[in-house]
């Protein structure tokens, strides 16, 4: 194939490139993958109402998130184990982010350390999984803060790992040589090998704290100056609780359909949440973003920016840093064209009048 022209072509190439275990881990959703599919289908349930005869000769995609200015409203979602896709792993992703002036959210479960990623100079947030070992959790937060991460993104939808049957079937674990690079102080820095089960599921059961509640967010905020963003909110009442507990941002997300199967598509959950919280906190979303028009719809429903997950891994698997850069470029160009064709030269011009849900009546 000549160079891929969209994210889906990257996905096809990545599938051929990756081991069965890595492909299974990256692509899967939980159980019957209903939410995984619905995350995509949701974009088709909205139609656009473009505005005409607006001067779109100059376009500006820049946004400000938590006071940081970004070249476009797209962040790289936190994703574990990127060295499974390419030997340069998270470093390659970080370099692509730096080049594009885009924010990378680094996973706690990265295969290169938060210090190594910080050394690339990329705009960065740190994603935190709260471990039962609170000393270790605190040390992670302090390391992230001292290494210049600009926000703490606390994932709240994973007290346990969702049952991902591909990982059970493949007895998912890390190949020799890959490690949980941020957790080298732990005795066991890799995933356990578990017969007939996923090593990641076992890791979470052993290490991650399922007793986490809103009170713990106060504990986290007491130990850091970094703004806290909660990732994995799907209900307006939870969003309001997040506001009450002082968080600065909310990521509407179902973890790419990998946690509770049957959970609402992120796009469908978005408007209730943006309506409920208004301007009190910044609302971002992720899940199923594969086209620039998907981003336009998410912004029209009130998101300030989106995070992109799997497409980054497809780019990384196919072409390392250059592959990630190209994926980011494709999505950006698609968004820019969609904005121009709908009469929105600036991100601030995108509003809810641009989208209309498809109902039975207008199908
Ligand atoms: C392979 C993979 C690993 C992930 N690892 C993490 C993680 O370590 N922490 C986290 O908060 N979310 C993780 N996620 C969820 C993503 O941050 C994001 O919510 C999701 O991928 C967005 O959906 P999309 O892949 O359809 O774009 C992971 C997702 C994938 C696909």
TrEMBL record:
Keywords carried by this UniProt record: Flavoprotein, FMN, Oxidoreductase
Protein name: FMN-dependent alpha-hydroxy acid dehydrogenase
Residue ranges occupied by any FMN hydroxy acid dehydrogenase domain in the UniProt entry: 1-360
InterPro entries recorded: Aldolase_TIM, Alpha-hydoxy_acid_DH_FMN, FMN-dep_DH, FMN_HAD, FMN_hydac_DH_AS
Keyword S-adenosyl-L-methionine: no
PANTHER family for the chain: 2-HYDROXYACID OXIDASE 1, S -2-HYDROXY-ACID OXIDASE-RELATED
Active site per the UniProt annotation: 255
Binding of glyoxylate, residues: 25, 129, 164, 255
Any one GO cellular component localisation term in the record: cytoplasm
GO MF entries: FMN binding; oxidoreductase activity
Family: Belongs to the FMN-dependent alpha-hydroxy acid dehydrogenase family.
Signal peptide (residue range): none
Residues the record lists as binding FMN: 78-80, 107, 127, 155, 231, 253, 258, 286-290, 309-310
Cofactor(s) annotated in UniProt: FMN
């Amino acid at each position: 194939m000549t160079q891929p022209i969209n994210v889906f072509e990257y996905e096809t190439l990545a599938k051929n490139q990756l081991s069965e275990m890595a492909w299974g881990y990256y692509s899967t959703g939980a159980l019957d993958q209903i939410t995984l599919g619905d995350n995509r289908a949701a974009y088709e349930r909205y139609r656009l109402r473009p505005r005409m005869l607006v001067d779109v000769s100059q376009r500006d995609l820049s946004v400000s998130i938590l006071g940081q200015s970004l070249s476009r409203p797209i962040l790289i979602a936190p994703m574990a184990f990127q060295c499974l896709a390419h030997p340069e792993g998270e470093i390659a992703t970080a370099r692509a982010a730096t080049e594009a002036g885009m924010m990378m959210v680094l996973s706690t479960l990265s295969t290169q350390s938060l210090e190594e990623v910080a050394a690339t100079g990329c705009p960065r947030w740190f994603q935190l999984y709260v471990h039962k070992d609170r000393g270790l959790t605190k040390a992670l937060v302090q390391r992230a803060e001292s290494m210049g991460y600009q926000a703490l993104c606390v994932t709240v939808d994973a007290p346990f790992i969702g049952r991902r049957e591909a990982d059970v079937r493949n007895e998912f674990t890390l190949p020799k040589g890959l490690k949980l690079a941020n957790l080298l102080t732990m005795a066991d820095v890799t995933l356990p090998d578990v017969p007939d089960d996923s090593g990641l599921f076992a890791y979470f059961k052993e290490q991650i704290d399922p007793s986490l509640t809103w009170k713990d967010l106060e504990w986290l905020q007491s130990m850091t100056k970094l703004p806290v963003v909660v990732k994995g909110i799907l209900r307006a009442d939870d969003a309001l609780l997040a506001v009450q507990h002082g968080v600065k941002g909310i990521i509407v997300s179902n973890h790419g359909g990998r946690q509770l199967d049957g959970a609402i598509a992120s796009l469908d959950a978005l408007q209730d949440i943006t309506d409920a919280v208004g301007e009190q906190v910044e609302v971002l979303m992720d899940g199923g973003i594969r086209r620039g028009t998907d981003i336009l719809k998410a912004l029209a429903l009130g998101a300030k920016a989106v995070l992109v997950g799997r497409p980054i891994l497809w780019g990384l698997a196919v072409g390392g840093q250059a592959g990630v850069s190209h994926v980011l470029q494709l999505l950006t160009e698609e968004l820019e064209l969609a904005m121009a064709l709908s009469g929105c030269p600036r991100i601030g011009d995108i509003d809810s009048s641009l989208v209309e849900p498809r109902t039975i009546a207008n199908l």
